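Re: [help] complex structure
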Amino acid sequence: MSRYFTEDHEWVDVEGDTGTVGISEFAQGQLGDIVFVDVPEAGKALTKGGDAAVVESVKAASDVYAPVSGTVTVGNPALADNPALVNEDAEGQGWFFKLTLSDPSELSSLMDEAAYAAFVAKQ
Amino acid sequence: MSEADLIDDTGEEPAILTLPLDAWHRARGGRMVEFAGYHMPVQYEGVMPEHLWVRESAGLFDVSHMGQLLFRTDDGADLDGALESVLPGDIAGLKPGRQRYSLLLAEDGGILDDLMVTRLPDENPFDVQGLYMVVNGATKFDDIAYLLDQLPDDILINHMEDQALLALQGPKAVDALARLVPGVRDLVFMTGASFEWDGKPLWIGRSGYTGEDGFEISIDSEYVEALADALCAQPEVKPIGLGARDSLRLEAGLPLYGHDLDEAITPVVADLGFALSKRRREEANFPGAERILAEREVGSAVKRVGLLVEGRQPVREGAAVLGADGAEVGRVTSGGFAPSLNVPIAMAYVPAALAAVGTRIQLSQRGKVHHATVTAMPFVPHRYVR
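Output below.
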């Protein structure tokens, strides 16, 4: 399994043609206490860089973009009752949705963990 | 995610000013953002814990961006009458040491700012006989220009740019402050008096913007860092950012100028009729009196209301209020998650027919419909010490 990151602070874990998407530990720290997550429904077609989900902190609503194109298979049901999971475990149990990748070649434009760590260090 | 949401605006734009406590906020981990033309801390440890801390203990807010003004006259001119020409409050009836919430009104009765005005007692740190006013930071320069234009030339206005302002808010604020400044317990809500701390003169009023008991402390900016340190050394006190200031005032039902109030809105529409003093209503001689008193008599076409939003998702400023046919009939002007209530709440302007408490209404935000119920404000009861 490989993990990729976007410059907009989403991550995607890829196994075969299935991707699991969330926001990074850095992003959750910047957002602060998360009170609501609007995840996409199964069957929704997403385009790389397009709107995929909304995450709401006490302060503000933020768009989450699709790191790759594909079709949503499931939104994380645990976030409805416990959006704070994103604060507690952003890169684990706080995942947002899973999708079937339509163009795995898009992954080549994303950062790996080391590159993302260097990117965040400059922020 | 969108960069603008994540990356702080600590950029190099020279137009953004710094406040006396700038380095102090940064040293305490404050995340700085631009607000009202200044770099200000939006949060330290997080909006949620800071909000809850103020409700149960005491929080220190740096509100030095607000405008502190003095009004006086040297030739016996009618100072109270001059102020009453732009405010609908009873200024002449304001006793020394008493503070009043009022509204700066445009000639048509629209709200240019909301403010606090206090009659200074003879002994005060500003060494002035007259009135002390605190106005919003984002509007202070426009306010001053308007006041200079409207008031007679023999009314002197002093904008105290070297004076810092701290707010200490919360049920334990009195315990913490009384340890440093004995005597503040004798103040009650909406009164103020002169004090000293470490030999430095203070002006302290018992009021605030959270719905909690608390104080606003004016001190020469040269000494404000030492006072902030001394206050935060008290076990009850933590520094609190703008994020929690906003969620606290929203729960308290208090409007924010530039969001819930603007020059197109009159006091009656804003549900601030209490700011129209009885004598002033009878005299009907404040700006826009004819229009405002007519609205008071027959009711205004739209009104500011509180909303309890169903579900978990906050509905924020800019969301539409929908009528029965799905058309937009009003706007949300403030909205967010209420940490003390654990639900989303909002303020909105709605038509009179939808303004009654208990009315269920529809809101639209980013293409999604939300349901809400009109509710009495404050959302969280005020706990002022009267």
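Chain A touches chain B at residues 8-10, 23, 27, 30-33, 35-36, 38, 54-65, 80, 83, 123 (CB under 8 Å).
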